[in-house]
């Protein structure tokens, strides 16, 4: 089945803390896992992406951890800042890559 | 690079009229474009996929006669909402992708309000 299950629905973190958002997928044929950040009234923007041949990818304060055997991947935001307050979507292209399956989204609020 | 624009950014129309939304890839050739619809506090719902010069492929439950999609060139796709009704009010987002590339580049979205 081609689903991506994302949790939690919402997250409140203190400034400077670590924000962790998790996603689980079912289709082992998925081979590209992006995370998108969306601010209110704007389109999503690619934040970071990973392919399953690596277990972790880091870009600045953002890290993706990938567990192929568990079919899970997560986004870690280190030193979370109020400007990180947004909705985050995990995603995966379906078999053939002709369309992208999105998670339900996580609304992150970073308290100053 | 990889910039996608949408026009207009917001539009208000009366029930029964039609509205056209444009999506342009500004610095790359978009062999595939996608149209999404997003309701408040919800995820993106794919409406249709279009390849340049071909008919769009619509997702189940999306009325192709109501949401007309034209991908006439490698840089332009349009979505026309025909005979709009208040329930069509939503945030419409397009994205574009080059051939052989998984990555989609999203436009800023168009807020449609039907009164």
Secondary-structure element sequence of chain A? EEEEEEEEEEE
Mean pLDDT across the residues of chain B is 93
* Radius of gyration of CA atoms of chain A, rounded to a whole number: 13 Å
Number of strands of chain B: 11
Strand content of chain A is over 45%
As a whole number of angstroms, the C-alpha radius of gyration of chain B is 13 Å
**SS element count, helices of chain A:** 0
Principal-axes geometry of chain A comes out as globular
Distance between the termini of chain B: 37 Å
Major sheet details of chain A: 6 strands, mixed
Distance between the termini of chain A: 40 Å
- Which chain pair has the greatest contact? A-B, 21 and 22 residues
What is the 3D form of chain B? globular
Biggest sheet overview of chain B: 7 strands, mixed
Sequence stretches where pLDDT stays below 50 over 5 or more residues of chain A = none
Q: Which key features would you list for this structure?
A:
heterodimer, A: 112 residues, mainly beta, 11 strands, 54% strand, B: 115 residues, seven-stranded mixed sheet
Give an account of the 3D structure.
The complex is a heterodimer of chains A (112) and B (115). Chain A has strands at 4-7, 10-14, 19-25, 33-38, 45-50, 56-59, 62-67, 72-77, 86-93, 100-102, 106-111. Chain A is mostly beta strands. In chain A, strand 4 (33-38) and strand 5 (45-50) form a beta hairpin. Chain A starts with a strand and ends with a strand. The model of chain A has no long low-confidence stretch (mean pLDDT 92). Chain B is mainly beta and 115 residues long. Chain B is built from no helices and eleven strands. In chain B, strands 2, 4, 5, 6, 9, 10 and 11 form a seven-stranded mixed sheet that branches. The chains are: A mainly beta (112), B mainly beta (115). The interface between A and B is medium-sized, with 21 and 22 residues.
């Amino acid at each position: 089945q081609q689903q991506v299950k994302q949790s939690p629905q919402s997250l409140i973190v203190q400034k400077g803390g670590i924000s962790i958002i998790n996603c689980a997928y079912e289709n082992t044929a998925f081979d590209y896992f992006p995370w998108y950040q969306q601010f209110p009234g704007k389109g999503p923007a690619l934040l970071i992406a990973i392919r399953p041949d690596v277990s972790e990818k880091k870009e600045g304060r953002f890290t993706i951890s990938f567990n192929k055997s568990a079919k899970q991947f997560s986004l870690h935001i280190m030193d979370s800042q109020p400007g990180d307050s947004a909705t985050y979507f995990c995603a995966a292209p379906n078999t053939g890559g002709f369309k992208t399956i999105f998670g339900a989204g996580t609304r992150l609020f970073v308290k100053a | 690079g990889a910039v996608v624009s949408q026009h207009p950014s917001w539009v208000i129309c009366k029930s029964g009229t039609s509205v056209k939304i444009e999506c342009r890839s500004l610095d790359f050739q978009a062999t595939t474009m996608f149209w999404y619809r997003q309701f408040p506090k919800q995820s993106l719902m794919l409406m249709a996929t279009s390849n340049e010069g071909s008919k769009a492929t619509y997702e189940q439950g999306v009325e192709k006669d109501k949401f007309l999609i034209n991908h006439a060139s490698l840089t332009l796709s349009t979505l026309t909402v025909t005979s709009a009704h208040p329930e069509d009010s939503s945030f419409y987002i397009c994205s574009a992708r080059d051939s052989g590339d998984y990555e989609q580049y999203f436009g800023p979205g168009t807020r449609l309000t039907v009164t």
